[in-house]
Design a protein that fits this description.
two-stranded antiparallel sheet; 2 strands; globular
Length: 290
């Protein structure tokens, strides 16, 4: 495999936590959370600020996730307490986070070249292999932790709340509290992706999160299509499919660039690819009905 596709694999791993975050908000809670664009950038901004101040990486990671969790809590509170539509609540928080990120960063971007970070650990001589290993380890433990959580009583309450909130309310489950905690967890995962990608690309830019939700959404939709085709019900396999969706999505984009297509068309191709993934299952069902 060429270095070009290895880089795409690494980016897929770095964006894997965000895909898992969108899986939590969209598939577990049925909430279209647009906070992703802002919390992703927030994770990268916190990373840049702390790393440039020589803060140890092991302290930067939880700080990024905490920042993302706070963003998710804000969206959850606006949605549940003010009874504002979840989509609008996410847009409001995302819009506010743009200014907050710019204020925190102090300028439009900060380079992170030659600054020690999560990918500074060396296990092999090849830097790309080292980075793949580090990202893979983080994603593995994150996925295993999410699988464990969704099988606990709290995780079952989360899944039940998204599936049938009327039933859970009658069982004494506090739906609003579960939703707030779920959105906090989803955006903490998203901020972790910002933490990884900022160090992968060696810079943080205040605009790096614009439209990033479509990447995570595409990964989840690919996973959902695969889940339906293979009739997967096991929660652990669904999490694996989400990560596989992230990989497929990045490989498609890498192949597009390798074909020599103008990078200016990349966002358009991304949108069309997601549209295709969404449309195929619906078209196939319509054809079967006929």
């Amino acid at each position: 495999m060429s270095a070009f596709y290895l880089s795409a694999l690494q980016l897929a791993l770095c964006l894997g936590p965000m895909a898992l975050g969108i899986y939590i908000s969209m598939k577990v809670f049925n909430i279209p959370d647009i906070t992703t664009d802002g919390s992703y950038t927030l994770g990268a901004v916190v990373t840049a600020i702390m790393l440039t101040q020589q803060v140890p990486t092991w302290m930067v990671l939880p700080a990024c996730m905490l920042g993302g969790a706070v963003a998710g809590i804000c969206t959850g509170l606006i949605h549940t307490k003010l009874k504002i539509d979840a989509l609008l609540a996410g847009i409001l928080v995302m819009t506010g986070l743009y200014s907050i990120n710019l204020i925190l960063l102090g300028r439009s971007n900060i380079p992170l070249i030659n600054i020690p970070g999560i990918f500074s650990f060396h296990f092999f001589a090849d830097d790309i292999i080292n980075q793949l290993l580090v990202a893979g380890i983080i994603v593995f433990f994150l996925s295993a932790g999410l699988r464990f959580l969704l099988k606990t009583d709290f995780g079952i309450a989360m899944r039940a709340t998204g599936n049938n909130p009327v039933m859970t309310q009658s069982l004494g489950i506090h739906n609003d509290r579960i939703k707030i905690l779920g959105l906090a967890l989803a955006n903490a995962f998203t901020a972790l992706s910002g933490f990884l990608v900022a160090q992968y690309q060696n810079f943080t830019d205040v605009n790096m999160g614009i439209g990033i939700v479509i990447t995570g959404l595409g990964s989840v939709l690919i996973a959902d299509a695969l889940r339906q085709w293979w009739q997967v019900t096991h929660i652990g396999l669904q999490i694996i499919l989400v990560l596989a969706g992230s990989l497929i999505f990045q490989m498609v984009l890498a192949f597009t660039l390798a074909m020599g297509i103008d990078p200016n068309f990349l966002k358009l191709i991304t949108a069309l690819f997601v549209l295709l993934i969404v449309a195929i299952p619906r078209l196939s069902k319509a054809i079967k009905r006929k």
